[in-house]
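Narrative of activities, Objective 1.

The group set out to show that a structural description can be obtained from nothing but a protein's sequence at a throughput compatible with the screening campaign. Below is one input-output pair from the validation batch, recorded exactly as produced.
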Amino acid sequence: MTLLRPLLCLAALLAAPLNQAAQLALVGGTLIDGTDAPPLPNSVVLIDGSDIVAVGTVAGLRIPDGYTRISTEGMTVLPGLWDNAVQLQYAGHPDPDHWLHHYGHDSATLAATATQLLQAGVTSVRDVGAGLHGILQLRQALRQGASAGPKLFASGPVLIPTKGPVRPSLLAVDGSEDAEVRTRELIEQGVDLIRIGGAAGGDEETLSAIVAMAHRYGLRVVAGGSSDAEIRRALAAGVDELLHIGVDTPLYSAELLQLIRARTAHGPPLYWTPTVGQVLGPQWLALDREWLDDPRNYAGLTPMQEQDLRQAIAQHAYPAPSTETIDTLRRKLAQLQQAGVRLVFGSGLGQLGQPPAQATWRELDYWVNDLGMEPAAALRWATAEAADYVGMGAITGTITRGRKADLIAVPGNPLRHLEVLGSPVIVIRHGVRYR
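Output recorded for this entry:
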C-alpha cells in the first residue's frame, strides 16, 4: 500500500472539489476583504486558477467571458479563516490518552479532522503537537491535492524534558545534548516550528538548547504558558511564543510582569496565543450539549469513533459557567497587552469543548461576546494578521488582487451575528471550491 492511499480514499469520500473550473466569479455579496477597508456591498471577486485577479462591484467590474458565476447574494464574502493553534490528532474526546491510544495517530483520523476544518471555513492552520509521521504524511497529501484540508504548518511531536517513555505525539529529551539532537532531527524532517511541553519541569540549559537549535535554522519555538512556572522557564530559554492562558490566579504577579516587560522592551518580540476556548468551551458545554448531535463533528470518523466520542463527552463532568473566569481572562489579557505582548489567534482545537468542526468560529465568538473584542478586529486577527504572523501575508489572508484565492461566504453579516461563521455556504481554497 502506498503512503498516501488511506488519505486518497478519505479525500474522495469526504470532500472532493465541487467545482474544478479554472475561472470563477463570486457575484453579489458584501465583501469583508481582511484589510481595514469598509465592507463592500454588491461585490465581485474574480478568480483565475488559484489566484484572485480582480475585486470590484457589480456596477464597476465586468466579468469576462468564460468565468463560472457563483452567486453570493445575501452572503458575506471574507478570507478563509486561519487557526494558528490546532491539534488535528484529537476530535473533542475528554480523555486524550484514551483517544490517542485507540485512534489518534491514524492517518485517516488526521485527514478526517483536517477535512472537517476545511468544511468549516478554515483554510490555513498550524498543528502544534502530533506524531511526526502522521502529520507530515498529511501535510504532503494536502500539498499534492491528495487529501482535502487547510494549508498545514506543523511542529510534529512536542519536545518534553523527561527521561521516561512518552506517547508518539511527545518526544522525550534528556539534557541539553539530547535536546540539540532531537530538535535537529525534527528540523531535518521538515517541521515548520518547534513546540516545547512541560517547560516548568525542564532545566534552563535543556530548554535553551532547543531554542538555540531552532533559531539557528530560522524556526520559531512555542511553549506552554498556562502556569507562572512555565512562563518563567520559557522566557528564560528565549522562546518566541506562549500557548494557552491559565486562570488559577486572578492576576499575573508584579515579578512575572517585570520579566515579560523586560523581554518586550529589549526584544525579540514575545507572542502569545491564549486559546481561551480551552477555558470557556467546556463551561458553555455545561449549558448547551446540542453540538453533540451536529453531524459535522463526526464527518469522516468511523462509527466506533463517533460512538466513543458521544458517550465520553455525554458522561463527562463540566465546570459550571462562571463570570469570575471571564473576569480573570479579561484582567490577565489586559496585563499582557499592556506589557507589550503581541496576541496571536488560535483555538487550541481538538480537546474537550473544541471540536474541529466548530472550534475556530467559537474561539472568535468567545473573544467578541465574552471578552469584548470588536467583530471587525476579530475577523482581521483571524485572517490577515494570522497570515502575517506565519510569514504568509503577501500570499494569502486578504481578498485582494494577487493573493491566493482562500475565501469563504457565510449567510448574513458576521459583524452583527458572528455565529454565521459556523455555517459557511462557500469554501474555496487556492481557487478550488470544496463547499
